[in-house]
From TrEMBL:
It comes from the Bacteria. The lineage of its organism: Bacteria, Pseudomonadati, Bacteroidota, Flavobacteriia, Flavobacteriales. Keywords: DNA-binding, Transcription, Transcription regulation. The keyword Transcription applies. This is MarR family transcriptional regulator. Residues 26-161 form the HTH marR-type domain. One of its GO terms (molecular function) is DNA-binding transcription factor activity. The keyword Nucleotidyltransferase does not apply. Gene3D superfamilies: Winged helix-like DNA-binding domain superfamily/Winged helix DNA-binding domain.
Length: 165
């Protein structure tokens, strides 16, 4: 038998008892989105476990792969697609280099610019991992009808465009 209430229902009930003057409507949405974000990231990480990479690794490798041949970008370009600090990006690129999934090189046109590029091994890893990632995403929302998925996508896009700075 499926649960009728989720964690957010419980939290809202408790706040209504303790602080009935609070308007809990927005938290019913925001709280669920935050909880789902953690669940989705955890499920994605588990799906990638066999590939020996983490979710943040996938973000960097996928960004390089999507960029097209020669699959090279600057760390600054990568940071626009991956939400981590510059220090974390440096550590991540160093780790991916040690795993031989990417290489670091100077730009041929401007030696002051550093590039990160996919190795052949990195391309193979991301090509396999991205299938697993997309399959996991599909499984995660299988309970929703096609119309519900479309409606939710439109609403989430609207929120993201408004709030993403």
């Amino acid at each position: 038998m499926k649960k009728e209430k989720d964690l957010i229902d419980v939290l809202i009930t408790e706040w209504n008892l303790e602080r009935p003057e609070l308007d809990v409507d927005a938290m019913q949405i925001v709280g669920r989105i935050m909880k789902l974000g953690k669940i989705f990231e955890n499920r994605a990480s588990m799906a990638l476990k066999d590939n020996g990479i983490y979710y943040t690794d996938l973000d960097v490798l996928a960004t390089l792969r999507r960029s097209g041949f020669p699959y090279q970008l600057t760390p600054k370009q990568l940071m626009q697609s991956v939400v981590i600090t510059s220090g974390a990006m440096t550590a991540l690129l160093n780790r991916l280099t040690k795993l031989e999934l990417i290489y670091r090189a100077a730009d041929e046109n401007d030696g002051r610019i550093s590039l990160a590029g996919l190795t052949e091994k990195g391309k193979e890893v991301i090509d396999d991992a991205i299938h697993k990632r997309f399959d996991e995403a599909k499984k995660s929302i299988k309970i929703l009808s096609k119309k519900e998925r479309s409606d939710l996508s439109v609403l989430l896009r609207k929120l993201l465009i408004e709030l993403d700075e």
